[in-house]
Amino acid sequence: MNIPILIPAIDIIDGKCVRLTKGDYAQKKVYNDNPVDMAKEFEQMGFTRLHVVDLDGAKAKHIVNEKVLRGITASTRLTVDFGGGIKTDDDLQRAYDAGAAMVTVGSVAVTHPVQLTKWLGRYGAERLILGADVRQGKISINGWLEDSAIDLLPFLKRYVDQGIRNVLCTEISRDGTLQGPAIDIYKNILSQFPHINLIASGGVGSIADIRALAQAHIPSVVFGKAWYEGRITLKDINELKNE
Protein backbone atom coordinates (compact mmCIF):
# COMPACT_ATOMS: atom_id res chain seq x y z
CA MET A 1 0.00 0.00 0.00
CA ASN A 2 1.24 3.49 -0.85
CA ILE A 3 0.78 5.24 2.46
CA PRO A 4 0.88 9.02 2.83
CA ILE A 5 4.05 10.80 3.85
CA LEU A 6 3.84 10.68 7.63
CA ILE A 7 4.57 13.99 9.36
CA PRO A 8 4.61 14.02 13.15
CA ALA A 9 3.70 17.33 14.77
CA ILE A 10 5.23 19.33 17.56
CA ASP A 11 3.06 22.19 18.80
CA ILE A 12 4.81 24.63 21.12
CA ILE A 13 3.52 26.73 24.02
CA ASP A 14 5.94 28.19 26.57
CA GLY A 15 8.76 26.24 24.95
CA LYS A 16 7.04 22.89 25.62
CA CYS A 17 5.53 20.24 23.37
CA VAL A 18 1.74 20.39 23.76
CA ARG A 19 -1.50 19.45 22.05
CA LEU A 20 -4.78 21.34 22.04
CA THR A 21 -8.30 20.04 21.42
CA LYS A 22 -10.22 21.79 18.63
CA GLY A 23 -7.72 24.63 18.77
CA ASP A 24 -8.80 25.58 22.29
CA TYR A 25 -5.85 27.00 24.24
CA ALA A 26 -7.74 26.25 27.46
CA GLN A 27 -7.61 22.54 26.57
CA LYS A 28 -3.84 22.24 26.61
CA LYS A 29 -1.92 19.09 27.50
CA VAL A 30 1.86 19.05 27.85
CA TYR A 31 3.51 15.92 26.45
CA ASN A 32 7.19 16.81 26.60
CA ASP A 33 9.09 19.64 28.25
CA ASN A 34 11.75 19.60 25.53
CA PRO A 35 10.61 19.75 21.89
CA VAL A 36 14.19 19.32 20.68
CA ASP A 37 14.45 15.96 22.44
CA MET A 38 11.07 14.99 20.97
CA ALA A 39 12.30 15.87 17.48
CA LYS A 40 15.41 13.75 18.01
CA GLU A 41 13.19 10.81 18.98
CA PHE A 42 11.15 11.19 15.81
CA GLU A 43 14.34 11.20 13.73
CA GLN A 44 15.68 8.11 15.50
CA MET A 45 12.41 6.30 14.69
CA GLY A 46 12.95 6.92 10.99
CA PHE A 47 10.70 9.91 10.31
CA THR A 48 12.15 12.44 7.87
CA ARG A 49 9.57 15.24 8.12
CA LEU A 50 8.39 17.32 11.05
CA HIS A 51 5.55 19.83 11.40
CA VAL A 52 6.27 22.51 14.00
CA VAL A 53 3.64 25.01 15.12
CA ASP A 54 4.44 28.03 17.28
CA LEU A 55 1.11 28.34 19.08
CA ASP A 56 2.40 31.24 21.14
CA GLY A 57 3.32 32.93 17.88
CA ALA A 58 -0.07 32.29 16.33
CA LYS A 59 -1.72 33.98 19.29
CA ALA A 60 0.79 36.84 19.49
CA LYS A 61 0.79 37.38 15.69
CA HIS A 62 4.58 37.16 15.45
CA ILE A 63 7.17 34.41 15.91
CA VAL A 64 7.79 33.58 19.59
CA ASN A 65 9.50 30.17 19.69
CA GLU A 66 12.23 30.83 17.14
CA LYS A 67 14.87 29.47 19.53
CA VAL A 68 13.09 26.11 19.73
CA LEU A 69 12.90 25.90 15.93
CA ARG A 70 16.60 26.67 15.69
CA GLY A 71 17.34 23.98 18.27
CA ILE A 72 15.38 21.37 16.33
CA THR A 73 16.95 22.14 12.97
CA ALA A 74 20.45 22.32 14.47
CA SER A 75 20.07 19.00 16.29
CA THR A 76 18.37 16.90 13.59
CA ARG A 77 18.35 16.39 9.84
CA LEU A 78 14.56 16.45 9.70
CA THR A 79 12.86 18.46 6.96
CA VAL A 80 10.93 20.91 9.11
CA ASP A 81 7.92 22.93 8.09
CA PHE A 82 7.10 25.73 10.51
CA GLY A 83 4.02 27.83 11.11
CA GLY A 84 2.46 30.14 13.64
CA GLY A 85 2.79 33.91 13.76
CA ILE A 86 4.16 34.43 10.27
CA LYS A 87 2.85 37.90 9.46
CA THR A 88 5.73 39.96 8.06
CA ASP A 89 8.78 39.71 5.81
CA ASP A 90 10.88 39.62 8.98
CA ASP A 91 8.88 36.72 10.50
CA LEU A 92 9.26 34.70 7.33
CA GLN A 93 12.97 35.34 6.98
CA ARG A 94 13.58 34.54 10.65
CA ALA A 95 11.86 31.17 10.19
CA TYR A 96 14.03 30.33 7.19
CA ASP A 97 17.16 31.58 8.98
CA ALA A 98 16.29 29.31 11.92
CA GLY A 99 16.36 26.33 9.58
CA ALA A 100 12.78 25.82 8.41
CA ALA A 101 12.73 24.16 4.99
CA MET A 102 9.15 25.29 4.45
CA VAL A 103 6.90 27.82 6.16
CA THR A 104 3.14 27.49 6.54
CA VAL A 105 1.22 30.70 5.92
CA GLY A 106 -2.48 30.90 6.70
CA SER A 107 -3.75 34.14 8.20
CA VAL A 108 -1.71 36.34 5.84
CA ALA A 109 -3.36 34.61 2.89
CA VAL A 110 -6.68 35.95 4.18
CA THR A 111 -5.72 39.35 5.56
CA HIS A 112 -2.86 40.37 3.23
CA PRO A 113 -3.12 38.33 0.00
CA VAL A 114 -0.71 40.61 -1.86
CA GLN A 115 1.93 39.75 0.74
CA LEU A 116 1.64 36.03 0.04
CA THR A 117 1.80 36.64 -3.71
CA LYS A 118 5.03 38.57 -3.14
CA TRP A 119 6.48 35.77 -1.03
CA LEU A 120 5.61 33.23 -3.70
CA GLY A 121 7.59 35.24 -6.21
CA ARG A 122 10.53 35.73 -3.88
CA TYR A 123 10.90 32.30 -2.27
CA GLY A 124 9.15 29.93 -4.68
CA ALA A 125 6.24 27.54 -4.20
CA GLU A 126 8.48 24.74 -2.90
CA ARG A 127 9.29 26.73 0.26
CA LEU A 128 5.76 27.79 1.16
CA ILE A 129 2.73 25.87 2.42
CA LEU A 130 -0.73 27.40 2.26
CA GLY A 131 -2.45 26.80 5.58
CA ALA A 132 -6.17 26.23 5.08
CA ASP A 133 -7.69 25.91 8.54
CA VAL A 134 -11.38 25.16 8.24
CA ARG A 135 -14.30 25.39 10.64
CA GLN A 136 -17.83 24.77 9.28
CA GLY A 137 -16.55 25.27 5.74
CA LYS A 138 -15.00 28.68 6.44
CA ILE A 139 -11.33 29.62 6.77
CA SER A 140 -10.18 30.46 10.31
CA ILE A 141 -7.19 32.68 11.14
CA ASN A 142 -4.91 33.87 13.95
CA GLY A 143 -4.41 30.58 15.71
CA TRP A 144 -8.03 29.57 14.99
CA LEU A 145 -9.22 32.35 17.27
CA GLU A 146 -11.07 34.17 14.46
CA ASP A 147 -13.35 32.87 11.70
CA SER A 148 -13.48 34.54 8.30
CA ALA A 149 -16.34 34.56 5.79
CA ILE A 150 -14.19 32.90 3.13
CA ASP A 151 -15.16 29.48 1.76
CA LEU A 152 -12.50 26.80 1.47
CA LEU A 153 -12.51 25.95 -2.25
CA PRO A 154 -12.49 29.54 -3.62
CA PHE A 155 -9.70 30.31 -1.13
CA LEU A 156 -7.62 27.41 -2.46
CA LYS A 157 -8.35 28.21 -6.10
CA ARG A 158 -7.07 31.75 -5.73
CA TYR A 159 -3.64 30.56 -4.61
CA VAL A 160 -3.39 27.39 -6.67
CA ASP A 161 -3.93 29.61 -9.71
CA GLN A 162 -0.98 31.69 -8.49
CA GLY A 163 1.29 28.67 -8.20
CA ILE A 164 0.77 27.30 -4.68
CA ARG A 165 1.38 23.56 -4.67
CA ASN A 166 1.62 22.66 -0.96
CA VAL A 167 -1.62 22.89 1.03
CA LEU A 168 -2.05 21.97 4.69
CA CYS A 169 -5.75 21.59 5.46
CA THR A 170 -6.86 21.23 9.08
CA GLU A 171 -10.46 20.52 10.00
CA ILE A 172 -10.51 22.37 13.32
CA SER A 173 -13.52 20.57 14.76
CA ARG A 174 -11.61 17.29 14.38
CA ASP A 175 -8.22 18.48 15.58
CA GLY A 176 -7.09 16.80 18.77
CA THR A 177 -10.30 14.78 19.08
CA LEU A 178 -8.88 11.45 17.80
CA GLN A 179 -12.26 10.92 16.09
CA GLY A 180 -10.99 10.47 12.54
CA PRO A 181 -9.93 12.83 9.75
CA ALA A 182 -12.31 14.72 7.47
CA ILE A 183 -11.62 12.47 4.50
CA ASP A 184 -14.58 13.72 2.45
CA ILE A 185 -13.18 17.27 2.59
CA TYR A 186 -9.76 16.09 1.45
CA LYS A 187 -11.20 14.00 -1.37
CA ASN A 188 -13.23 17.00 -2.53
CA ILE A 189 -10.13 19.20 -2.51
CA LEU A 190 -8.17 16.69 -4.60
CA SER A 191 -11.04 16.29 -7.04
CA GLN A 192 -10.82 20.04 -7.69
CA PHE A 193 -7.02 20.38 -7.47
CA PRO A 194 -5.53 16.96 -8.29
CA HIS A 195 -1.96 18.18 -8.72
CA ILE A 196 -1.41 19.78 -5.32
CA ASN A 197 0.50 18.19 -2.47
CA LEU A 198 -2.30 18.03 0.07
CA ILE A 199 -1.34 17.54 3.71
CA ALA A 200 -4.27 16.31 5.81
CA SER A 201 -4.39 17.41 9.43
CA GLY A 202 -6.82 16.95 12.28
CA GLY A 203 -8.58 14.01 13.87
CA VAL A 204 -6.16 11.15 13.20
CA GLY A 205 -6.75 8.73 16.05
CA SER A 206 -5.50 5.34 14.88
CA ILE A 207 -3.56 3.50 12.23
CA ALA A 208 -6.94 2.74 10.63
CA ASP A 209 -7.33 6.45 9.97
CA ILE A 210 -3.99 6.56 8.17
CA ARG A 211 -5.01 3.48 6.19
CA ALA A 212 -8.24 5.25 5.18
CA LEU A 213 -6.25 8.32 4.06
CA ALA A 214 -4.00 6.04 2.02
CA GLN A 215 -7.01 4.42 0.37
CA ALA A 216 -8.29 7.92 -0.48
CA HIS A 217 -4.89 8.71 -2.06
CA ILE A 218 -4.16 11.62 0.28
CA PRO A 219 -0.46 12.45 -0.30
CA SER A 220 0.59 13.46 3.24
CA VAL A 221 -0.76 13.49 6.78
CA VAL A 222 0.14 15.34 9.97
CA PHE A 223 -0.54 13.54 13.23
CA GLY A 224 0.19 14.35 16.84
CA LYS A 225 -2.04 13.40 19.74
CA ALA A 226 -2.60 9.84 18.50
CA TRP A 227 1.16 9.29 18.67
CA TYR A 228 1.63 10.95 22.04
CA GLU A 229 -1.29 9.01 23.50
CA GLY A 230 0.08 5.68 22.21
CA ARG A 231 -2.80 5.06 19.79
CA ILE A 232 -0.37 4.86 16.86
CA THR A 233 2.98 3.11 17.29
CA LEU A 234 6.02 2.55 15.12
CA LYS A 235 5.01 -1.13 14.95
CA ASP A 236 1.60 -0.10 13.54
CA ILE A 237 3.25 2.06 10.90
CA ASN A 238 5.72 -0.63 9.84
CA GLU A 239 2.93 -3.19 9.54
CA LEU A 240 0.90 -0.78 7.41
CA LYS A 241 3.87 -0.24 5.11
CA ASN A 242 4.06 -3.98 4.56
CA GLU A 243 0.37 -4.48 3.70
In short:
With 243 residues, the chain is α/β, with parallel strands linked by helices. The protein is built from 11 helices and 12 strands. It has helices at 35-44, 55-60, 66-75, 89-97, 107-111, 113-123, 152-160, 183-192, 207-215, 225-228, 234-241; strands at residues 5-13, 16-21, 24-32, 49-54, 79-83, 102-105, 128-135, 138-141, 146-151, 166-171, 197-201, 220-223.
Structural write-up:
- The chain is an alpha/beta fold.
- The protein is about 35% helix and about 30% strand.
- The protein contains 11 helices and 12 strands.
- The chain has helices spanning about 35-45, 55-60, 65-75, 90-95, 105-110, 115-125, 150-160, 185-190, 205-215, 225-230, 235-240; strands spanning about 5-15, 15-20, 25-30, 50-55, 80-85, 100-105, 130-135, 140, 145-150, 165-170, 195-200, 220-225.
- It has an 8-stranded parallel barrel, surrounded by 6 helices.
- α8 (about 185-190) links the parallel β10 (about 165-170) and β11.
- α1 (about 35-45) packs parallel to α3.
- The chain starts with a strand and ends with a helix.
- The model has no long low-confidence stretch (mean pLDDT about 95).
Q: Level of helix content?
A: 25-40%
Structural class: alpha/beta
Q: What is the count of DSSP helices, taking H or I runs of 4+ residues?
A: 11
Shape: globular
Task: Return the average pLDDT rounded to an integer.
Answer: 94
Major sheet attributes: 8 strands, parallel, barrel
The total count of strands amounts to 12
Q: Work out the strand percent.
A: 25-35%
Strand sequence of the main sheet, in spatial order?
1-4-5-6-7-10-11-12
For the terminal residues, how far apart are their CA atoms? 6 Å
Low-confidence stretches: none
Order of helices and strands: EEEHEHHEHEHHEEEHEHEHEHH
The rounded Rg comes to 16 Å
